[in-house]
Amino acid sequence: MSDTNKEVVDLVWGRPSGGGVPSSLFRRWSQGFVFSEAERSALEQFEGGPCAVIAPVQAFLLKNILFNTEGSNWKDISEEEQRTVLCSTLSEILESACLNKTQAFHLATLPRAKITDSSDITDSHPEPESSQPTDTPTALAAEELGFERFHSIIQKRSLRTVAELKEAVLSLYDTWKNKFGVLLFLYSVILTKGIENIKNEIEDTSEPLIDPVYGHGSQSLINLLVTGHAVSNVWDGDRECSGMKLRGIHQQASVGFLTLMESLRYCKVGAFLKSPKFPIWILGSETHLSVFFSKVS
């Protein structure tokens, strides 16, 4: 595993003692961005955990369908519209995570491989003449990758301009849809933002972005995807507490965030998240994130 990959793993998963990250937890997060057949603008979640990434992407995706796409019916979008709007949404979130647009964008990808069957995967050895391998960007999903193996083969692809970013994200549509798509996108956001920049914004760097026991995403992770900043709080602006600077949200967000925890007086959500630019909100309950919206701006 490269030093960069290890830094990403430590930031996202922490440094669990003993046997490392439980295989069940990694499995729950190993899914792609999959559209529902019953509700064609809705993204499906298969197991608990990745809603911290899927819900923000869903919120921005709805924003782009409802308010940025003329003549589109959010209840019945075509497969081509799904492809276009998902990739433009992922690009938008990556752009917001980039502190300086003159810096490079980074995508986390898996190496291409030649596949003859699920037990024969190779990158460098020649294939027998009788075999008919198929190129696919997610070929390694044909074998059951464990946590260590998966993170040891992740590659970083750098892009200099927004146009290059959008083109690359669109070309990787099958990757985002397939196994590991959610994790690869999360890692792309982290690499684009910069590991040190994220650490400087998080309140407690000892806490990973994904809870090592329950697998849910932290508020810093949600804020990173929603606002481009991995701050730990949801109030407006910064606050001082016993000489410690507690970072909050500094401008009106495109999509909002509300939480049941506020009704229980555990936190206070500021106006920048309560009153977003578009009438779309991520709603945090005790165990899950949902998205609700209005078609009227």
From TrEMBL:
Hydrolase that can remove 'Lys-48'-linked conjugated ubiquitin from proteins. It comes from Labeo rohita. Residues 117-128 have a biased composition (Basic and acidic residues). Its EC number is 3.4.19.12. This is Ubiquitin carboxyl-terminal hydrolase MINDY. One of its GO terms (molecular function) is hydrolase activity. It catalyses: Thiol-dependent hydrolysis of ester, thioester, amide, peptide and isopeptide bonds formed by the C-terminal Gly of ubiquitin (a 76-residue protein attached to proteins as an intracellular targeting signal). Residues 9-297 form the Deubiquitinating enzyme MINDY-3/4 conserved domain.
